[in-house]
Write a structure and sequence with these properties.
The chain is α/β, with parallel strands linked by helices. Helices cover 38% and strands 20% of the residues. It is an enzyme of class 1 (oxidoreductase).
């Protein structure tokens, strides 16, 4: 598979609007509060009948200090005991969810996110993993994809060895930027020596894979400082790199008001930083997966994409397609059969529900047949930059050109600009169009097509900017 990106600054500026990341379709904005427990139980019943393997996600919302750029659902506290009541109710949720699913279904993917999962101490992490293994069928042969997000400031050789012993085999390490001035501006100070020490411990404990998260567009970032950050990251040789665009939305995320807007790089500089970063990563041998993800050619993500098996879920690009995802903890979103459902975002409300012996589901969505069709199309494009029209017609019993006439009309201008090629049997995204795949996908999004057809202003903050 070609992994090239052709940079066209004029087209990028023209097509960079606000749009979904498509970790689900429909997106969470469409979730409804009238989604009932009966809807959820019906989905679980269909899920058990399918015997599909499972993915588990656990949200640990606690952080010791606040990073000013953060848009995650989190609780900032230095009091480690704040985690005790939450952990108690999380384990109650594990029991309740575990009773719903057939225990013969293997958990092939597991992820702890946050917040900072290692805010929990060693005994709490051990207890949580053992509780999970008691109620779900975890693999014990190290063949599952079991990952955890790490903050270098909350990691040590001992804690990393503990995580490996608990069964984790992949690490996602939050680095963001190596420049001391940038780190200070976003209140996330961590030395290069600290990060290198954590990476060494990860290698020493023979984790299967290391992913590193970086952010471009942070205050005080320049072309030169970011060039050095990418250079240092490449030197650490992670298997995967996520290069996220900082979305400055202080009206939605109050902590971002701590950032001095005058220190943010201009839109032009941000694009230059992105272009330079892509060139550095390509020259270092990283393959562009899509959106903001890069990986070594031998990494399972690349292999899955090359084999046409790459999927997308609430954690981003994934090798574990064909699973149902059970998400636990406040704000977490499950995908079970053809439904999504989300727990309460408020930690107190979440705990109150579980304390009363009831699940904390706050809203959800049951996909229609049309949603499933459009999800398939969007997933194929965002994962593989290509769509086999004949396969879609056979699977869903439609005439593609008729069914998607409005979508194809929206794509004609993009085709004329060289972002994609539309043929009778296939839609193929070009190297020039890959960075704009979210815009392309919006043409098939019945809930967001108006953002293309009506030229919705980019000040709209329902979604972040595409680039």
């Amino acid at each position: 598979m070609s992994c090239k990106i052709q940079w066209d600054g004029e087209l990028i500026q023209r097509y960079t609007i606000n749009g979904p990341r498509y970790t689900s379709y429909p997106t969470a904005i469409q979730f409804r509060e009238d989604f009932s427990q009966e809807d959820m139980l019906a989905a679980v019943s269909r899920s058990n009948a399918s015997a599909r393997p499972l993915s588990l996600y656990f949200h640990i919302p606690f952080c010791n200090t606040v990073c000013y750029y953060c848009a995650c659902n989190k609780v900032i506290t230095a009091n480690r005991r704040r985690a005790e009541p939450y952990l108690q109710q999380l384990m109650r949720e594990i029991e309740m969810q575990g009773q719903l699913y057939d225990n013969s279904r293997e958990v092939i993917q597991l992820h702890w996110g946050g917040g900072t999962p290692t805010f929990l101490d060693s005994s709490e992490m051990t207890l949580l993993m053992h509780k999970t293994g008691k109620h779900f069928n975890l693999r014990n042969d190290d063949t599952g994809e079991y990952s955890i997000e790490l903050d270098p400031r909350e990691s040590s050789p001992g804690s990393i060895a503990l995580l490996r012993g608990l069964g984790f085999n992949r690490i996602s390490l939050g680095v963001q930027d190596f420049d001391p001035a940038v780190q200070k501006a976003v209140n996330r100070v961590q030395s290069e020596e600290m990060v290198r020490g954590v990476v060494k411990a990860i290698r020493d404990n023979q984790f299967h894979g290391l992913s590193m998260d970086l952010i471009y567009g942070l205050p005080l970032q320049t072309l030169e400082t970011n060039r050095i950050t990418i250079e240092k990251t490449i030197d650490l040789n992670p298997d995967r790199i996520s290069l996220f665009n900082y979305a400055h939305l202080p009206q939605l995320f109050k902590v971002q008001k701590q950032i001095d807007e005058s220190q943010l790089p201009s839109a032009e500089v941000r694009l230059e930083i992105l272009q330079q970063s892509i060139e550095q990563l390509n020259n270092a041998g990283y393959q562009y997966i899509g959106m903001d993800h890069f990986a070594r050619p031998e990494d399972p993500l690349c292999q899955a994409q090359n084999n046409g098996e790459l999927q997308r879920n609430f954690q981003g690009y994934s090798t574990c397609g064909g699973t149902d995802m059970i998400a636990m903890g406040c704000s977490s979103i499950s995908k079970v059969d053809n439904t999504y459902f989300q727990n309460s975002k408020n930690i107190e409300t979440y705990q109150e529900h579980l304390a009363k012996g009831e699940l904390a589901i706050e809203r959800g969505y049951a996909l229609t047949d049309e949603d499933r069709l459009r999800r398939h199309v969007i997933t194929e494009l965002i994962c593989h930059f290509s769509l086999d029209i004949g396969k879609v017609e056979r699977k869903y019993g439609i005439v593609f050109a008729e069914h998607f006439s409005e979508s194809l009309a929206l794509l004609r201008g993009m085709e004329q600009d060289g972002l994609l090629e539309i043929r009778s049997e296939r839609i193929q995204v070009t190297d020039k169009g890959r960075l704009l795949i979210r815009t392309i996908c919006m043409a098939f999004d019945s809930y967001n097509m108006n953002r293309l057809s009506e030229q919705v202003p980019t000040k709209d903050t329902i979604y972040s900017k595409i680039i």
